[in-house]
From TrEMBL:
<keyword id="KW-0804">Transcription</keyword>
<dbReference type="GO" id="GO:0003727">
    <property type="term" value="F:single-stranded RNA binding"/>
</dbReference>
<keyword id="KW-0240">DNA-directed RNA polymerase</keyword>
<dbReference type="GO" id="GO:0060213">
    <property type="term" value="P:positive regulation of nuclear-transcribed mRNA poly(A) tail shortening"/>
</dbReference>
<keyword id="KW-0539">Nucleus</keyword>
<dbReference type="InterPro" id="IPR036898">
    <property type="entry name" value="RNA_pol_Rpb7-like_N_sf"/>
</dbReference>
<dbReference type="GO" id="GO:0005665">
    <property type="term" value="C:RNA polymerase II, core complex"/>
</dbReference>
<dbReference type="GO" id="GO:0000932">
    <property type="term" value="C:P-body"/>
</dbReference>
<protein>
    <recommendedName>
        <fullName>DNA-directed RNA polymerase subunit</fullName>
    </recommendedName>
</protein>
<dbReference type="GO" id="GO:0006367">
    <property type="term" value="P:transcription initiation at RNA polymerase II promoter"/>
</dbReference>
<dbReference type="GO" id="GO:0045948">
    <property type="term" value="P:positive regulation of translational initiation"/>
</dbReference>
<dbReference type="InterPro" id="IPR012340">
    <property type="entry name" value="NA-bd_OB-fold"/>
</dbReference>
<dbReference type="GO" id="GO:0003697">
    <property type="term" value="F:single-stranded DNA binding"/>
</dbReference>
<comment type="function">
    <text>DNA-dependent RNA polymerase which catalyzes the transcription of DNA into RNA using the four ribonucleoside triphosphates as substrates.</text>
</comment>
<dbReference type="GO" id="GO:0031369">
    <property type="term" value="F:translation initiation factor binding"/>
</dbReference>
<dbReference type="InterPro" id="IPR045113">
    <property type="entry name" value="Rpb7-like"/>
</dbReference>
């Protein structure tokens, strides 16, 4: 689910940036350091507003100025039981990995239809039922998230395709 969140961050700027370029330096640092970051269980997609800064506070003995930046950010938090679309990254005998933005999920064989099997013959590894569903690298798939975990600036999870309207997408 996407949502807008108000964030507050402290930045330290060297005194050499004081002057007309200070606002640009703070704005640049906000975008490079905050966008794409994972915090708690959500991913910061982009900064929407970044024009509010506190008065600078001099740090004694260091030559740096401390600023607090107030911003609004567009964030994405994947929820358990949410249905999302992703792209298959890798296939292994026990299942496959797919990427959904910043989230990488694993779909195990137990969470696929019972008639699916792993095949390594032909064009490369694939999961297929030899009828209407073949999952290979770069296929677009629709999955239901069973669990999501945030660890060390990464979002990981497990998912299933063993329900109606889930699995490989027709236009992939």
């Amino acid at each position: 689910m996407f949502f807008v969140k108000e964030l507050e961050r402290v930045f330290y700027v060297h005194a050499s940036y004081l002057g007309s370029g200070l606002h640009n330096e703070l704005t640049k640092r906000i975008h490079t350091e905050i966008e794409g970051m994972i915090e708690d269980n959500y991913f910061i997609v982009c900064i929407l507003e970044d024009d509010k800064f506190s008065e600078g506070r001099t740090i004694p003995g260091g030559g740096h100025i401390e600023y607090t930046a107030y911003m609004k950010a567009l964030c994405w938090q994947p929820y358990k039981r949410e249905v999302v679309d992703g792209v298959v990254l890798n296939l292994v005998e026990s299942g496959f990995f797919c990427e959904i933005g910043a989230l990488v999920v694993f779909v195990s064989q137990e969470h696929m239809p019972k008639d699916m099997f792993f095949e390594t013959q032909g064009a490369g590894p694939q999961w297929t039922n030899n009828k209407d569903m073949t999952i290979e690298r770069s296929s677009s798939v629709r999955v239901r998230l069973l669990g999501v975990k945030a660890t060390m600036n990464r979002l990981t999870g497990i998912a299933t395709i063993n329900e109606d309207y889930l699995g490989v997408l027709a236009n992939s």
